[in-house]
Amino acid sequence: MNSYICYGALHDAVAKVLISTAIPKEVAGDFKILPVQRKDHYYVLCSEAGAEFGILDTRTSSSLDSLKDYPTVQFEAVVPTQVFTKRQHKRRPGLRTFPVSINIFGLKLNASDAASRLSNLSAFLQHPHSLSEEAVYDNPQFLTFRNENLNMSTFIGASNGNGPNSKTKISEEINDILESLTHVTADEDLEPPVGLSSKLKRHQEDSLRFIYQRENETFTQGLSERLCHEASIEMKALSFTSFGGLIADTMGLGKTLTMLAAILRSVPAAELFSSFYDKPEQERPQKLRIKATLIIVPSSQLLESWQSEIQTHILPGALSFICFHGKKRPRNNELLSSFDVVLTTYATLVADYADQSILHQVEWYRVVLDEAHWIKNSSTRQFQASAALCAKRRWCLTGTPIQNKLEDLASLAQFLQFPNIATKVVFKRYILSPLSEGGADFAKPLRAYLKAYCLRRSEKCLNLPASSEVIVTLSLSLGEQCLYKCLLDETRREIDSLVSKGVETRSNKLFTAMLKLRMLCNSGTFFSARSNTSSLEPKQSYLETECEQCQPSSEEARLLENGDSVCSYCGKPLYRPSPSPLQDSGQRSNTRNISDGANTPSNEGIQVIVEQKSPFLSAGCSTKLSAVVRKVTEGGTDSKSIVFSYWTSTLDILRWLFEQAGISCRQVDGKVGQVERSARLRAFKEDPQVHVLLMSIGTGAVGLNLAVANQVHIVEPQWNPSVEEQAIARALRMGQTREVTIFRYIMEKTVEQNIVSLQRKKRHIAKFTFDSETQETQSGALEDLKFVLDMGSV
Asked: H or E element: which one contains 454?
């Protein structure tokens, strides 16, 4: 019992170099084993000679410090050999930080307590990458079953969750699980809710049954018991029980209507809920009980979409609703008690949480998060404000419950608060941790959890008309080639200069260069009169770095982020209004109607603008944007096209080109106000003379139903391909009756072609990763940028 063993390894550690001269010069094999010593409150790596050359990151140091009470505990660092060999062969100032894993050793009798201390800090032991032959490995956090005689030494160096094979295996298993979540037990027939004016599709009826079952106490008790058994979770009697789950159908399957039908069906139960308390006063929340379901959406644009769905599919008077949004929103929680549905945005929820907290003063019958991946980061304000709401019934609607990190699912689980797995620590330990431990049935707990609480179907159940994809490959004109080459050469010179001066080549410099080159592929020579390529410092007129997925409008960004410069959801820069290429040519005063939130200008107004700007515009051209106009024209007068671009400046030029061609269009981007946005979307849907909708991909990629369109034009390849899928789904969704053609525009021999190549390359790499791989992911992102810019030697 007093034997000395290896408990396992922490794989997410990072070391920073203190003295580069002490770094080992001669290394052999795949890994270098180095001693780790405690110095005050931090831990250092030492060379064979005893010299301190590296310091461990604070998170890892805290984890190791939790074991300081055990005098026999020892640590060793396992460093990949390539860390040192790369340093020797590459021309760079020197190694600064590098990834390590930490093997932990101690007495077997202390193993369980040590594992518990680490788990409390969300530190989970994994299989060692490398271990001496005489060491005995016995992981106290590893999921085992009674009478199972397991030799853990076989796991050393394999199935760690960090090697390419195991990552791919885990990713494929998760994908298989998600694709299997299609079945709903039909234990009884459900009558359509009274007041529903539209007939539900078969898959929506199944969703309604799924929701009904998981809001039934007896049914959910059985689910919880089975999950605890399959995931080896200790059952506990809890005074508070949450109901709900995840509706994770892919885009366009009508999740909104399904949830509205469920709300409509539960109106009598919600009335009863608000009229009586089911607990003694001392045990119940000191909050006003109301019958309403609170629905939280990403943007005011989607508020309108939910209102439209209610008005379209619910009989008048059957479901009362109110929007808790804007300056005129209610200032008294009792005013909300007479409604069946309260609609708000994440931004308004956050603002209210920091102010009067009206939404948190009541106990809701149900809370629904639309596009629930908005709370995937549990450190954000939107997560904190959402999790703090009081409700027994909690639902997440999202087509991407796991975008790429398993941490995303852990955040949703923490919001849902299911019995026995209500915290992120417990969820990680019992549901996610087994994935990285290898062994038989390593995915069994996750499969059991998702089978119990998640429903996911694909667009295959819609039987939509066939869609086709056209890749429009184009070449830069001579003038565009000249500009592109000048910008690329200038980029290389500046990066080389930074390297030669010993300045670290950070990814933001490369990202800025890539953005400039991507924009030039769109704008062509229209920007040549004002471009300045002499610096990689971000220029507002050039970068317009709107978050691709997160910020549907500048209003929402301001409310949610409160002045932050980067999005707390994805880490990308937030939208900043910037002058259009027309405005930046020196004649800004009369160009407001081109792309801001004012009313759509009259034909006479546009003619004046065109006449004022034609000297500048006629001097430029864009091969790509001319091709977009040509393809739209070839579609004929019966077609309706949505044109997506990342940049509003691209949309501004396109709008001018379409007007020149006599094609009526509407533009929607982050600068267009809510009322005007609604008018423009309505015109595109209902006016047969409006053939084109120009949308920035950040404002139109999520949630909208634009099934009236039969053409989708993706002007430039997106860094994140899922953003393109979201955009295309605006047309490829329930209600589409025509074949849809998707056009993708790619400029040959440019960064765009490299981005597409990178996307193809990444299809063979694991899709889902652990949150602990952040350092590796950041390193990979830098390599991706070098690949796109064809600057591999930088």
From this structure: strand 454-455
